[in-house]
From TrEMBL:
Annotated protein name in UniProt: tRNA U34 carboxymethyltransferase
GO biological process terms, semicolon-separated: tRNA wobble uridine modification
Native source organism of the sequence: Pseudenterobacter timonensis
Function noted in UniProt: Catalyzes carboxymethyl transfer from carboxy-S-adenosyl-L-methionine (Cx-SAM) to 5-hydroxyuridine (ho5U) to form 5-carboxymethoxyuridine (cmo5U) at position 34 in tRNAs.
Broad class of enzyme this protein falls into: transferase
GO-annotated molecular function: methyltransferase activity; transferase activity, transferring alkyl or aryl (other than methyl) groups
Assembly and oligomerization: Homotetramer.
Binding-site residues, carboxy-S-adenosyl-L-methionine: 91, 105, 110, 130, 152-154, 181-182, 196, 200, 315
The family this protein is said to belong to: Belongs to the class I-like SAM-binding methyltransferase superfamily. CmoB family.
Keyword Transferase: yes
Length: 323
């Protein structure tokens, strides 16, 4: 069973210590009552992985671990087989001792778009909400963060993160907790909070923005990346049953409307840092994610529309400060 005691010990000594009033009980309840039917199988894949300490670790340009001498084919096959037991891999890519996990998303491209617009991450304590496999947590550490904490209730992602961490020498600078943002108390403790690819899944988007603000220190920075549509500050798309085949998409604002939402929630210094079309090179099916992907969600006769007739996915990055 995945052990969170290292994280508890870590935060007991810093400004996150008051989180210990609620967190251990939440994790215990999750372990007792809420484990996914396949969790044991996923956890076994993590348990059977060898503990590796990289001779060379690059988190600045990628997530790449290398050994001093290349692994033999049997060792590589063992690692690959166990990592394939944790498919589908959506966020990445990872290169671990010659095993290349080609994920559905080129999350490295997103990071390269976002990073130039951020305040320096050196020494910062960071929260990544809806962090998936934790790919960006490692890139945050590579950019100098002191501690990167991810939350995501999807248990497969937790096991993927723990598998990668085990192959990175059990690195304690990044941690993933199987929680949603609504389960966090108002910690007011993080220097930077990321919410990437989450807002459109929230039934109450302004409440989500308030929840993010409640996690930031005064003067802290919010990095918000989400789907947007073309239009002025009053434009918001409320899709029908599905958007790009996703069921749980509630509100897609224009970037200008989103700027207004952030202002309404009390953020300042709000800016649209980036806006770009999601391409079928950035999100696609691979040998590590073999089901439908973006190409299947777009109108085959008009790639500027989804199969439902809505504008095709465009993502914007907004950066704002908590006063």
């Amino acid at each position: 069973m995945i052990d969170f005691s290292n994280f508890y010990q870590l935060i007991a000594k810093n400004h996150l210590c008051h989180w210990l009033e609620t967190l251990p009980a939440q994790i215990a309840a999750w372990q007792r009552d809420a484990l996914h039917g396949q969790f044991k199988q996923w956890n076994n894949a993590v348990e059977f992985l060898p503990e590796m300490t990289p001779y060379k670790l690059d988190l600045l340009h990628s997530v790449t671990a290398q050994s001093e001498t290349p692994l033999d084919e049997g060792q590589k096959r063992r690692i690959e087989k166990l990592m394939r037991n944790l498919m589908p891999w959506r966020k990445g890519p990872f290169s671990l001792y010659g095993v290349d996990i080609d994920t559905e998303w080129r999350s490295d491209w997103k990071w390269e778009r976002v990073l130039p617009h951020l305040s320096d991450l050196s020494g910062r304590t960071i929260l990544d909400v809806g962090c998936g496999s934790g790919y960006h947590l490692w890139r945050m550490i590579g950019a100098g963060a002191h501690l990167a904490v991810g939350i995501d209730p999807t248990q497969l992602f937790l096991c993927q993160f723990e598998a990668v961490r085990k192959l990175l020498g059990n690195d304690q600078r990044a941690h993933l907790l199987p929680l949603g943002i609504e389960q966090l108390p108002a910690l007011k403790a993080f220097d930077t909070v990321f919410s990437m690819g989450v807002l459109y899944h929230r039934r109450s988007p302004l409440e989500h923005l308030w929840q993010l603000k409640d996690q930031l220190v005064s003067g802290g920075e919010l990095v918000l990346e989400t789907l947007v549509v073309p239009g002025d500050e009053h434009t918001v798309l409320v899709p029908g049953d599905r958007y790009a085949q996703m069921r749980n998409v509630y509100f897609i604002p224009s970037a200008l409307a989103l700027k207004n939402w952030l202002a309404k929630c009390g953020f300042v210094d709000i800016r649209i840092a980036d806006e770009c079309v999601t391409t079928t090179e950035e999100q696609r099916r691979t040998g590590w994610m073999t089901t439908e992907s973006l190409a299947d969600f777009l109108d085959p006769k008009d790639q500027s529309r989804t199969v439902e007739g809505y504008p095709a996915p465009v993502r914007a990055v907004l950066i704002a400060t908590k006063p």
